[in-house]
Fold this sequence. Notes:
Shape: globular
Strand content: 35-45%
Number of domains: 2
Largest sheet: 10 strands, antiparallel
CATH class of the largest domain: Mainly Beta
Bound molecules: zinc ion
Number of helices: 4
Radius of gyration: 21 Å
Order of helices and strands: HEEEEEEEEHHEEEEEEEEEEEEHE
Distance between the termini: 33 Å
CATH superfamily of the largest domain: Glucose Permease (Domain IIA)
CATH architecture of the largest domain: Distorted Sandwich
CATH topology of the largest domain: Glucose Permease (Domain IIA)
Number of strands: 21
Structural class: mainly beta
Amino acid sequence: MKFLIFILLISFSFPFFSEEFLILSGNATQGGILIGNVHQDVEQVFWNEKNLAISDQKIIIGFDRDEPLEHQISLIFKNGEIIKKDFLISKREYEIQRIDKIKKEYVEKPVDKNLLRRISNESKSLQAVRSGIYKENDIMFEEFIRPIEEGKISGVFGSQRILNGIPKSPHSGLDIAAPKGTPVKAMSNGIVALIGDYFYNGKFVLIDHGLGLSSIYIHLDSIAVELGQNVEIGEQIGSVGSTGRATGPHLHWGVNYFKKRIDPELLLDQDEKFLIIKK
Ligand SMILES: [Zn+2]
C-alpha cells in the first residue's frame, strides 16, 4: 500500500515521463492540427520561424490546406540548451465539386462598387480577427465536438468548387445539412470574437478558442450570443439557416489556425500521438 501511494505521488508530481519534453498529438497532415504538451523545463518552442505562445504548458500548430510538407520544431530550454527536430506531414487529395443553379450575383464577381467595398471590408474584418490582431488569447479549448449532432455532410473541407462552371476558391470548411432552426453548438470553450450578417456568410458567429484557434458558424438563421461573450463547449450559439451564399439550410462550419484553414473533421480526432521529443 505504501508503495502504491509512493507511485501515485510520483506520477502526480511529474505529469510527464521525466525525459519527454514535448508530446505532439493530432493529425500531421494538410488541414490538421497538432496540440503539444510542453515540459516545464522548456522556455520557448519554435515551429519553423514562429515563436509559439505557450499557455497552460500547451502549444498548437495548424497546417493550411496546401501547407508545405517539411517542418522543424525547436525547443529552447531554460538552461539554454536547444533541441531541433525535423518532421514531415502528409499530403491530402481534395475532391472537385460542381454546383450549378446558384443565383448569379453570388457566383459572378459583383460590379456594384458599394457591394465590392462591402465584401472587401467584411473579408478584412474576418482576417483581422483571425490573425489575432487584437489579442492572442490564452488557451480556452480542451476537447472538440461537432456543432450539430445529426445531419448529413454535404460538403467536405478542401474541395475545389466549380459554381455555375466558374472555378472558386477551395471550400474552407465542412457543410452539414440540417433543417432550418436546428440548434448550432460551440465546438469548444471560447469567446465570441465576431458576429455579423455578411454578403457571403449571411449571419455568422466566430469564436476564438485561444492560441490562434478559431471556429466560424455561417449561414445561420439566428444568432444566440453576443460579441465578447464567453461560451462553453456544447452551448447553443445560433440556429441553422440559409442566409448568405447558401443553396439550402445547412451549417458551414469552419476552423482556422490564425489565417490557415483547418479541416473540422480532423479536429474531432486529436488523440493520436505523433511526435515525442526526448533528450
Ligand atoms: Zn460551406
